[in-house]
Amino acid sequence: MRPEDWQALQHRLLPHAISAADSAWCPYSEFPVGSALLTADGAIIRGCNVENVSYGLSNCAERSALFNAISQGLAPGSFKALLVYARGLPVISPCGACRQVMIELLDPECPVIGVGHDATATRHWTVGQLLPGAFSEF
Predict the structure, then answer these.
(1) 59 marked as binding residue
(2) CATH-assigned architecture of domain 3-129
(3) Considering just the CA atoms, what is the radius of gyration of the chain in Å?
(4) Per residue in 19-46, pLDDT tens?
(5) Which of the following is catalytic: 62, 104, 109, 137?
(6) For the chain, what are the domain ranges?
(7) Predicted TM-score of the model (pTM)
(8) How far is residue 34's CA from residue 31's CA, in Å, rounded to a whole number?
(9) Is 55 annotated among the ligand-binding residues?
(10) pLDDT (tens digit, 9 = 90+) per residue, 102-130?
């Protein structure tokens, strides 16, 4: 993907991810994260982290957006891009659990963008780059 394509995706998705982060429920970590998932038809589905005092029951922003999309009837593998935003870090990267969910629900070549408060430190990956050697049924 060309640098200008990454920049266009970031420009389109970042405001939605920032807005999603504002909706985060994170009273324990005080670390709001938002994500924006671009669908095949150009719609944007937001996700935010939702915490629980029993941390294992919490959900990350990336998985929230993906689970929301699947629950709306959208097909796995049909998404065009995912952006993750956290204002508390210079740049953010998806956790291991999110990477495993992404490898199953996104195409391995799907772009993933990590953005924090320092937009110059933005990172770009494909899903396949985030989880090389992933196990899956496919």
Answers:
(1) no
(2) 3-Layer(aba) Sandwich (3.40)
(3) 14
(4) 999 999 999 999 999 999 999 999 999 9
(5) 62
(6) 3-129
(7) 0.94
(8) 10
(9) yes
(10) 999 999 999 999 999 887 789 999 999 99
